[in-house]
Structures are given as structure tokens and as C-alpha cells.
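hi! just following up on the protien thing from before. the input was this:
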Amino acid sequence: MRLCSLTSSNPCNTTIIITNNKNVGVAKSYTNNCNPNFNSNHQNSPKKSSIGAAVAAAALSFSLLLYPPVSIAANSPASDQSSSSDEYCREDGGLLGDDMALSAPKLGTNEGIVEEAWEIVNDSFLDTGRSRWSPESWIRKKEDILSTSIKTRSKAHNIVQKMLASLEDPYTRFLSPEEFSKMARYDMTGIGINVREMPDSSGSFKLKVLGLVLDGPAQTAGIRQGDEILSVDGEDVRGKSAFDVSSKLQGPSETFVTVEVKHGNCGPLQSVKVQRQLVARPPVFYRLEKIDNGATSVGYVRLKEFNALARKDIVTAMKRLQDQGASSFVLDLRDNFGGLVQAGIEIAKLFLDKGDTVIYTAGRDLSQNAFVAESAPLVKAPVMVLVNHNTASASEIVASALHDNCKAVLVGEKTYGKGLIQSVFELHDGSGVVVTIGKYVTPHHLDINGNGIEPDFSNIPRWSEVKEYLSTCNRLTQG
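and the predicted 3d structure came back as:
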């Protein structure tokens, strides 16, 4: 089993853990990539997927039109990137009592594939309040589906697709064997875009560029946010899924792919040749600002995305700014759609006291598992975090962790509100299903998904106000 990327139908992709009815996968981070270097523990029977410490999520950041400060140079991704893992398993019977426990599906048969997918949802699916799922309705659906024989494998796959679509959860979906196998071949050789299926007036959908990696290959070549993708290497991709198109865009590092795009709804068509790239770009820029007629130094740090270099570069920037005399810091997370959630968790820890909660994960059983800081903070100076409506996923984890632990004030706009976790399960015929199994919850127990985080100030406050706000916050927290 290998962990692979998916293109979510949301601006920020979500946590993916790959598993199957025989293997327990290891949670890893992804950003349109696949990391094949992890182990699987073999089991003899299906086990229930439960929320442990989910550690990964992926997203692509939008462009920022800001004055570019100093860039941190780096030659390769950080070698000490965290990859903590927890087992995800399934238990026979799901939510049913022993007297209603389901018999194991006949593995490999058409009916068995459908029942296998049904059981995964029955055991693992988290209803986020936007679907029509209930244990009772799901049992009735199985009875209806399996009341007649399923003569072909394609019919079985079609039934699974419709069954998952009935949940009305945009992230829970079916993967054909071809799609699932493609996932295992992914690596970080994409062109730096996030593709989304957007409905149009005809009832169909268009493939739009929803996000761009700042200074990534696609943006550099001239692809813009909002562009419609029409063809890849001369092949018409209209009507194809975002997953299919993302697969076609990826390939060996340094090779080229030609993408035909339409700029905006009414703009011109353009054929763009883009070179794929492997090495993650430095995501951090920083500079020292002088205020109060030069009497006070403020360290400004802009984080574009949470990639493999993010934590290492943040540490370097903060230390250099401290050495230059910075007595307070601005962390700019505007238009940062996230990236590797584990990087976000580790960066948040840099600002927190030992024992402070970074984030919780919550599953269908309502239990919550906490990520906590294990050591003293890198800096103790007051921090101002800049956020806007495009601050999402890993960015929201960092913003809420610093805010709820009285380490920073949030300034700007309400954040995007993205915090769901998906698991990818491999079925016994090589196909797969992606199922929403959990969500992220802030230290103050706020459900991020669909809600976002409200800032403390809409406009830049004076540093005296920041210090007073944090002082009051700490007094209230301490009792």
C-alpha cells in the first residue's frame, strides 16, 4: 500500500490516510504527491477505521501580491520532517449490535465489492451535518442494492459510485482500479495548481484552476487563478474529473506538459508549456521592520505554504530576526491555503509552551485526540497573525493554536473554514473509496470546518493594544 495524492473538490485538500481491508496504512502528508516509503501492517480480517492522530493534509496556496522580502535559500526538503503515524482499522459489525452484525462480504465477487464499500461507510463515515446518512437509512440502502444480482464489475462500480454520491458529501467518492493505481505513481512533480470541478449553467461542470502555488511552474508560465483547463498535451479533458486531469498533469521532474486554458469565463484561449518540478520551493520570506521612528524592531515573516521546508525555514527566519533585534513578530498567513498539516502542527509548537494543545482530531465516536507541544517555545515575544478569507486548513490550525493559547492576536478577515479528514480504502479488486472520517477542532473546541475563525482585529492594531490583549487573555486563562 502506498499513500498517494488526490485532487479534492475543495480549495484545500484534506487529510488522506490510505488503508484497505487487509492493510493498515500510515498517515502521511501530501500535496499532489505520493510517498511510497511507508510500511503496512497486515491483518486477517476487516477492521474499523477510527480517528487516531491524523497527521496530514494538503492544499495549494493562492498568490500574494506583496513586496517580496528576503528569501531563505534551501537546497533540499527538510530531512527531519515529522511523519508520525497511527493505525486505522475496521471492526466487524460497525454500529450494529451482535445480533445484527453483518456477515463478511464474499470477497472478489461483484456483490462483495459493493458490500465491502458499504461496510466501510457504515463503519467509518463521519456525517458533518451536510449529508443524508443515518445507520437506519444506510442499512435499507444495502438491502435494496443487494436484492438483485450484480452481473458485471462495471455495474458494481457504478452502484458504489451512486451509493457514495447519495451521501452528498463532496469528499466521499469512488476510485476505479486505474485511478487507485495511478495514485501510487505520484510524486512531487506537479506543476503547482489545484484543479476543481465547477458546475456550469448546463448542468455539467468545468475544470477550473482554483489555486496556484506562489511562484510555481504554472503561475510562472502564465496560468491564472480561475482559468478553465481545456486540454492536456493535446487531449481534450472537458468532462473528465479533476482527479484524471491532475494525473495527466503530473510526470517526471523537469519534463514539460502543454496545457490549453481559457482565461476567465470570457477570456482568450492560450496554450501554455509548463515544466514540472520536483524540489519544494522555499516557502518563507522575512524582513525586519523599524517602527516608532526606528526605536522598535518588528520581525515580519510571510509563510506562503506548508511544505517540507516550512518548519526549518520558519526557525531560521525567527532566529535571524531575533539576532537582528526583533522584539515582536508578524506572521502573515493571508492567502495561505495550507499544505502539509504536520508542518502546520510543528510550526505552531514553536510558539507554544510545553503542554499547550495545538489541535484536536474528532471522529464519529465523538472522542477527541490532542496534539500538544513537547518543549518550550522558540520565541516568547508578542505575535500578530495576519489572516483573510483564503487562510485555510494548516493555516487555520496554526492561527487557532496561537490564538487560543494567548500567544498571538489574529488580524484581518474571517478564515476559510476547512478542517475535514478523509481516509482512502482499497477494495479487494484494486478499486478504492475515499471516505470522510474525521475533522479538526481548535484548542477552544471550535469546529473549524464550515465555520472559520474570527479575527480579534479587522485592522492593524498598535503593539500596545496587542500586548494588552494578550496580557488580558493570559489572566483570564489562568483563572
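The radius of gyration is 23 Å.
The longest strand covers residues 432-441.
cheers
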